[in-house]
Structures are given as C-alpha cells and as structure tokens.
Amino acid sequence: MADWTTYFEGSNPPEKYDENRTRIQEFVSRHSKDGRRLVLVTSGGTRVPLESRTVRFIDNFSVGTRGSVSAENFLAQGYAVIFLHRLNSLEPFTRHFSRVNFLDLLSLTTTAEGSADVQVDPQHTARLVGVLQRYQQVKETGTLLSVSFLSLSDYLYLLRAAAEAFSHIGPAAMLYLAAAVSDFYIPHNELPEHKIQSANGPLQITMQMTPKMLSPLVKEWAPQAFTVSFKLETDTSILIKKAKQALQKYSHQVVIANILETRKKTVTIVTRQEEQVLLMSDSELEAGMEIEEKIIADLVKRHEKFCQES
Ligand code: PMT
C-alpha cells in the first residue's frame, strides 16, 4: 500500500481547490471566533476513474442519506457544519424533496383576465414551511458551508484541507466521516488516457490499495479534534471486532458500526470504554423519525465531555 504522501504526490488536486480551501479556512476562523463548535460531515460515495479522460469509473452504493440527515441534526444542535459531499448526492434540506418532481409542488392559477400565477400546492405547504423555516435560519446564521467532490482524490484533498483548518481550533472541532471511501484506486500515471476499447477483449484491471487516511488525519492533520469514523460491513459477526481494531489502530475517539442492510434501523457506537447500541423502534420509523437524531444527540454529549477534559 502506498503511504499517504506518495498518494498525494501521484494525484492532482481537484478543480477550484485553492478557492475551496480558502472558503473552508475562512468559515472555520469566523465560527471559532464566535465560540461555535464546528463539525466536518463527509457524505456520499467516491468515484474511482478507469480512464484519465473518464468515460468509465467504479462507484459505490452510498447516496448520502447518513451525511445529509446528520448535517441537519448538527445544525439543529448549534454546530457550524462543513458539508463535504459527493456531487449530486443528497444535501441537507433539499433532501426532503429529492423524490418529488418540483413542478408537482406548485399549482398554476389563471385569472379571468388571463394572467397566470404560481403558488405552492396546498397539500405540500405544511412540509415546505417546516423545512424552509429551518433552512432560512441556517442561511441567516451562515452556519452551513457546502463543498462538493466527485472522485476519490478530490475527496481526499478536500478532507485534508478541512482537517488542517481544524488543527487551529483544538477540541472544539469534530470530524464525522460518513462518506463511503473507496479502498482501491488506479494511480494517475497508470490510467489510460483514452476510452478503453472493447475490441481489445475482456478487461483486466489491477487496482492499488488506497492508504487509510484516518492515520495521518488523527496523527498529523487534526490531532486535537474529536474524530468519529464509520465502519461498514455486510457480515455482522466481524463488525464490532473491526470497529475496535480501528480504534486501536488509529487512536481516535469513536467508531460507529453499521451493517449495510440495517443501517437506518440500528448502529453501535463503539469507544475504547463501551459499546452503545442505538435502535429505532417500528413506531419511531413509522412516525418518520431518523436514527441520525439519536446518533448526533449521543455524539454531542460525548464531544462536550471531550472538550471539558481536553
Ligand atoms: O450514504 P448512505 O447511503 O446513507 O450510507 C451511509 C454509509 C453506510 C456509507 C455510512 O454510514 C458509512 O458506514 N460510511 C463509511 C463507509 C466506509 O468507508 O467504511 P470502511 O469500513 O470502508 O472505512 C472505515 C473508515 O475508514 C471510514 O470512516 C473512512 O472514512 C475511513 N477510510 C476509508 C478508506 C480509506 N482509504 N481511508 C479512510 O480513512
């Protein structure tokens, strides 16, 4: 496995990297001066290109539900949120309407004189008002900064930039790493430039292991921050063991362990001292409650304690 410095040496920063790094630094500096706690929420899947002028790529299942719901809950708890998300994945607030054709939210009325007026369809008003009130409050306080990425390397560059910006504010910063990060990639200098031709027969590819960025993140980029990583597995029998191994290896504060199929119903919050299972009852799910509300309420308490003890 290449180490993380070799990884960055062998890949290019994303478009508008300097501009986004400056936006992140200014956001962190402004909110830390106001005494606000900050969190970086990463969200969505990372794309791994197979060609440098990319036609084909490898991707994963993540749509950004965990990240976008969590970001809303951190905002509700008074945090300033950097939302580092996969382009076109779910985002806070707009996610509530992601499955609705926006034209269906509106109704058209025509007056006797023939002029047209557009209004919100009454059946959607209550839902829109609730979301809009929370969204406008966030806009007024300027507590949400959205930054998007597409590929694995875009994500890793921006993750490092945000973590380094956090290094100036000590324990008041939290990193909440919910993005689904690819463990495999093809180094930039090994990518074919042009579209791979099917005339050459079946495709065989060799991918390198992506260095685990949790290691430099905890040791070098943001050593004083409160870091929460996720452990995703499909095999229940190895989940908690792997979560504990991650804590031991990287020495960060929390691993949230989840299984692909049940991730919206149950997670286990694993620390060096304990394992706390969070579970949604059927009635909570039916009432539209989301597990992230419980996850964030729990983490906010742990972060508070961490800040007091640091
Ligand atoms: O978006 P949704 O559809 O709602 O799905 C949410 C989710 C299942 C993606 C989310 O809950 C989740 O589990 N995210 C982490 C997925 C993942 O990358 O798991 P992992 O076991 O491969 O990696 C564990 C941790 O190591 C992650 O926090 C990741 O940030 C980190 N990592 C991974 C690879 C790498 N090269 N470097 C890393 O630091």
Automatic annotation (TrEMBL):
GO terms (molecular function) for this protein are: phosphopantothenate--cysteine ligase activity
The alphabetized list of GO BP terms reads:
coenzyme A biosynthetic process
What Pfam families does this protein map onto? Answer: DFP
What is its EC class?
Answer: ligase
Task: Quote the SUPFAM superfamilies the UniProt record gives.
Answer: CoaB-like
Q: Where's the DNA/pantothenate metabolism flavoprotein C-terminal domain? A: 168-285
Q: Which residues form a coiled coil?
A: none
Secretion signal: which residues?
A: none
Give the reaction(s) catalysed. Answer: (R)-4'-phosphopantothenate + L-cysteine + CTP = N-[(R)-4-phosphopantothenoyl]-L-cysteine + CMP + diphosphate + H(+); (R)-4'-phosphopantothenate + L-cysteine + ATP = N-[(R)-4-phosphopantothenoyl]-L-cysteine + AMP + diphosphate + H(+)
The entry sums up its family as follows:
Belongs to the PPC synthetase family.
Q: What is this protein called?
A: Phosphopantothenate--cysteine ligase
Give the source species.
Branchiostoma belcheri (Amphioxus)
